[in-house]
Amino acid sequence: VESQHDPRLRQHIEQLRRIARPPRQKRHDDDALLISVLAGFPDRVARRRAGNQVMLSNGVSAELAGGPPPYDFMTAIDAEERKEKPLPLIRMTARVEPEWLIDLFPERVKEQASVIWNHAKQRVEAVSALLYDDLAIEESRGAAPDPETAAALLARKAVEEGIERFVDAGALAHFMARVEFAGFDKPDIEHELRGLCAGIRSFAELKNAASDLVPMLERKMDARRLNEIAPPHIRLHRGRQTRVHYEQGKPPWIASRLQDFFGMKETPRIGPDRVPVVVHLLAPNQRPVQTTTDLAGFWERLYPQVRRELMRRYPRHEWPERP
Q1: How far apart are CA 107 and CA 223, in angstroms?
Q2: Side-chain half-sphere of 184: how many Cα atoms within 13 Å?
Q3: Residue 23: pLDDT band with limits 50, 70, 90
Q4: In three state form, how does the secondary structure of the chain look?
Q5: Across the strands, what pairs with 202?
């Protein structure tokens, strides 16, 4: 373990040579040497990760020169920064037993409980770790996580994943567009989702719970006022009720068969400003024959031509001259 790069290490090695023991105590001597190296470099402890990478006790990743050693914990004796690569290179290591860290440096060892995201299982897990500085010596999982922390983490991961995975995306978009049309403040989806995440830990559980998200958002608003300003349905002259479609950045619209609008002289209007809805007039085959926000103008200028075409295509239907 001699190195020409660090005078502290050479000094420790010289001290160890003066107290060398007979060959029969080789294992004990090896441990004594390694412990001495550790004592001289407590800030260079590392733990092996995948391949030839290690994690240092200060939280920085590094790369081992050559193949990985046959031990998990080590002292990084000879390390250097590299301009051409992001990870420092460790050229020489010495074995470390985890219990040495606890015995020699109890002030640097602490217990920590945390809640983490298991990406493979798509769930929140509680982790209890014994740390040397920022390096985990031992880890255990399986305990129940703190409910509030777990709910916040699960909600955040669901938003990152895409909320449409857990709720009816069309229903949520429609509700948010109604809120925008009504001029209400937009709800904080992640905050509201956190309430649904209480007591659950995984995406699988959230998929069932999140079906209640849109109704819950409606309950937390002034639903009566929202329905007055942005009604979900409009009743037409002949009694048929048709859905009002809302899309963010677009005027609201309705669609129904042309015959359903017979008897209506004016375009339906909604909201405090009496905004006319866009009317999609459908043929009997449910395909649009005209789109308008001026129903009175349609009856006067366009209906005669549309009537002739529809009478030819659908002779069994009634097409009055003055609907």
Answers
A1: 58
A2: 23
A3: low
A4: CCCCCCHHHHHHHHHHHHCCCCHHHHHHHHHHHHHHHHHHCHHHEEEECCCCEEEECCCCEEEECCCCCCCCEEEEEEEECCCCCCCCEEEEEEECCHHHHHHHCHHHEEEEEEEEEECCCCEEEEEEEEEECCEEEEEEECCCCCHHHHHHHHHHHHHHHCHHHCCCHHHHHHHHHHHHHHCCCCCCHHHHHHHHCCCCCEHHHHHHHHHHHHHHHHHCCCHHHHHHHCCCEEECCCCCEEECECCCCCCCEEEEEHHHHCCCCCCCEECCCCEECEEEEECCCCCEEEEECCHHHHHHHHHHHHHHHHHHHCCCCCCCCCC
A5: 123
The amino acid occupying position 211 is S
CA dihedral 217, 221, 222, 224 (to 10 degrees): -10
Please identify which residue in the block is written with the tokens 């409910």: 147
Structure tokens at 105: 């440096």
* Residues sharing a CB contact under 8 Å with residue 185, sequence separation 6 or more, in sequence order: 179
C-alpha to C-alpha distance for 23 and 280, rounded to whole angstroms: 96
Q: State the pLDDT confidence band at 1, using cuts at 50, 70 and 90.
A: very low
Work out the number of other CB atoms within 10 angstroms of the CB of residue 109. Answer: 16
Q: What is the spatial distance between Cα 181 and Cα 269, in angstroms, rounded to a whole number?
A: 13
Strands 45-48 and 73-80: antiparallel
Over residues 282-303, the pLDDT tens digits come to: 999 999 999 999 999 999 999 9
φ, ψ for residue 122 (rounded to 5)?
Answer: 55, 55
User: What distance in Å separates the CA atoms of residue 186 and residue 172, rounded to the nearest whole number?
Assistant: 12
Q: What is the pLDDT of residue 14?
A: 54
CA dist., res. 24 & res. 218, Å (int): 80
Q: Pairing state of beta strands 288-292 and 278-282?
A: antiparallel
Residues sharing a CB contact under 8 Å with residue 315, sequence separation 6 or more, in sequence order: none
User: How large is the average pLDDT for residues 261-288?
Assistant: 95
Q: How many residues does the chain have?
A: 323
